[in-house]
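Quarterly update from the structural biology core.
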Amino acid sequence: SDGSVVAWGSNERGETNVPLAAASGVTDVAAGEYYSLALKDGGVIGWGSNDYGVMNIPASAQSGVTTIASGSYHSLALKDGGVIAWGMNVVGSTIVPVAAQSGVKAMAIGYLHNLALKEDGSVVAWGWNAKGQCDVPAAAQSGVVAVAAGYDFSWALKEDGTLIGWGDNDYGWINVPAAAQEGVVDVSSVSYHTVAQVAAAYAKLDQTEVFGGDSATGTVKLAQAAPAGGAVVGLVSDDPRVQVPETVTVPEGATSATFPVFTSAFIGNPRTAIVQTSYNGTKTVSAYLKVKGNPSTATFNIASTVGGSTTKPVMTLSVKTPLANDTVFSLEYDPALSGPGTVTVPAGSLNATVPVTTNPLYTGSTAGVNVLHEGLLVSTGTITVAPFRASVTFETSSVQSGETTVATIYLNASARNAVVVNLSSDNPAVPVPATVTVKATGRAVTFSIPTRAVATTQYTKVTATINGNAYSGNLKLIPTPGVRSVTLASSMYGNGRSTGTVRLTQAAKTGGTVVSLSSSDPTLTVPTTVTVPEGQYAVTFVATSSDVSAVASATVTASNALGSVSAQTTVSPLTLASFTVTPTTVAAGGTTVFKVSLNAVVAVDTTVSLASGDGALVPLPATITIPAGTRTVTFPVTVGTPSKAKLVKVTATRGTSSLTRTFKVTP
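Predicted structure, tokenized:
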């Protein structure tokens, strides 16, 4: 073609009078009711009738136009993917909707309605809609490759070679005949009829989508029965992962033959392959097969675990179909999990395992491992990870205050690494260490609590904190009896004993209550401790005084962890109370009895010094001992023989006290 326009037929309004401007270089033509259009150098040229302004070509259609179309009394031009319309507009035929102002690749024009085919395969319609010719059905909203418009009906040709019609069907205008039910490669309509071109050969598939590694069955169909010797039809797939035979032979006299479709397993996004026939250079209809990546699943061998525990979860990555090559997957872990960065599913295998380590965390969560192939997320394995929890238990639920008890921190799982547990107590009487450590691979730790004595029943909360989570146990403190009083004689003598009494504020505890005793002065000694028997309120003790030469004052203190009480006493020196001689006159060689008495009973053997005015006549021992537990001692003395009667003085001395007696010794 030389790009010139030839016109013939009715010339009632000059519509066949081709102007000089359209004599060459024309790339498209369109004919209206009484006018004609030509496209040259991207601009529209018109001639003939100008009824309804059909010759008033808008300035926007003077350049950049790629195709044109004419109806009875309005026209369309396609420019930069947008539709331009002009002419009769009684029913909105030339009011282009926003959807048709961009992304349009083809147009069709009816009597007073228009169709625009978008790049995305959807259809936009506008204008006269008396018969629903502008009500685009859902099936024509995607996958459309061509459009056509009749007087008041519309057509869409789908990529699978099927036709969809809508609008006026008074005379069966949109009833697709059997011969055009599939394999259509082109369609055209004019006022009241439609023509469709059916491919000489085309392929159909029994499935529209499969997983990689699965298969399908295809069928080659002919528009006419195969000639003698059969018809050899070429086949081609645009995706190497979808394999078809190079040719398939349709037997003589037949109109179809089947062929296998194989797919390769792969990991990745779905892809759509196109399978086409090749037959004597004729147009064909593409068959589309969506091939989905080999599905993979990631599952754990356990549903839940404790973060940081010795439990070792294992994730299994499985694929639906064995892969042809070793396939490496990248792994991304939530903070609660860690493990290798990749895992490889060997060629021909269906799965691979991944050892996973859990990490300590503050709160429980569902943690995941994302499995990626070439940056694409293909599956996620999830497991519930709980934090370490602890129970705080005691040797007994209650303890006598002042005694030591043992506590145990028990974790909900064995720890992979050592776990430091922070401890606290809400009661100073129950002091706990700042921290204890559960050893690696261990699950529990014990520690001692030396409680302090308290006077009343108390309840204490001991708290163990792990990774910010606190867990508590309660311990009851049984009160310890306090010391109410200590009593003692207000005075005593040296080398003496006095019985004192310690009294408690309440009955002594199980096993007895120990009270410490002390004396402020060494002249008075007391036991270091006394024990009030279980269930009793008091106990006695003995205070022992030493031999003093002067009055001494001593304070006796009774104490335990809850406090102390005191009592005072004085220790006076021992003195002679009496010294007697019986009889007071004794003959030579006779015996007299001496009696020495102290002012108090002594607790230990106590000596009294003796002196005689005539040791030869009245031989007295230097000392005499008053036995412990008594205050008096008597002893006989045999006198000598004087030459004449003689008065002899005898003296008993104890400390600073002294008594002298005189008696007569006769010849």
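The chain is about 0% helix and 55% strand.
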